[in-house]
Amino acid sequence: MKRKFGRETDQRRAFLKSLANNLILKEKIRTTEARAKELRSFVERLISTVAKESLASRRQSARVLTPAAAKKLTQEASTRFKEKKGGYTRLTKIGRRASDGASIVYIELIK
């Protein structure tokens, strides 16, 4: 089920793109569990597409990601995720946020 995060469609799409850019560039980010679960499906579909190594897949990633993130993903996907059929990310629970009790996790790209 798609989470809405209290945002309009365009805002939500931009929010997920921003999280995806940060995850690809930094390879590990800290966020809430709901955000990480939604980001996981977004990023895994993107990596599966880019791993095909076609011009169309490169262009599709460039539509979603910043130039730096798209370049990093296309260079790494060919070697790092070539043999894998999925499961490119890992969620690690780290506790609850003090202010509102939201569950906080690390989401990282598997090496």
How are the SSEs placed, and which strands pair?
Elements: H1 9-26, E1 28-32, H2 33-50, H3 55-64, H4 67-80, E2 89-96, E3 103-109
Antiparallel strand pairs: 1-3, 2-3
Helix pairs in contact: 1-4, 3-4
Could you characterize what this model shows?
The protein is globular, with a radius of gyration of 14 Å. It has a three-stranded antiparallel sheet with strand order 1-3-2. It contains four helices and three strands. It has 111 residues and is of the alpha+beta class. Strand 2 and strand 3 form a beta hairpin. It has a single domain (9-109), classed as Ribosomal protein L17 (50s Ribosomal Protein L17, Chain: A, Alpha-Beta Complex), CATH 3.90.1030.
Keywords:
111 residues; 50s Ribosomal Protein L17, Chain: A; 4 helices
The gist of it:
With 111 residues, the chain is α+β, with helices and mostly antiparallel strands. Helix content is 54%, strand content 18%. A three-stranded antiparallel beta sheet has the order 1-3-2.
Cα(first) to Cα(last) distance is 28 Å
> Which ranges are low-confidence, i.e. pLDDT below 50, for 5 or more consecutive residues?
none
**How many extended strands?**
3
Q: In terms of structural class, how would the helical and strand content be classed?
A: alpha+beta
* Strand residue percentage: 15-25%
Write out the strand line-up for the largest beta sheet, numbering strands in chain order.
Answer: 1-3-2
CATH topology: 50s Ribosomal Protein L17, Chain: A
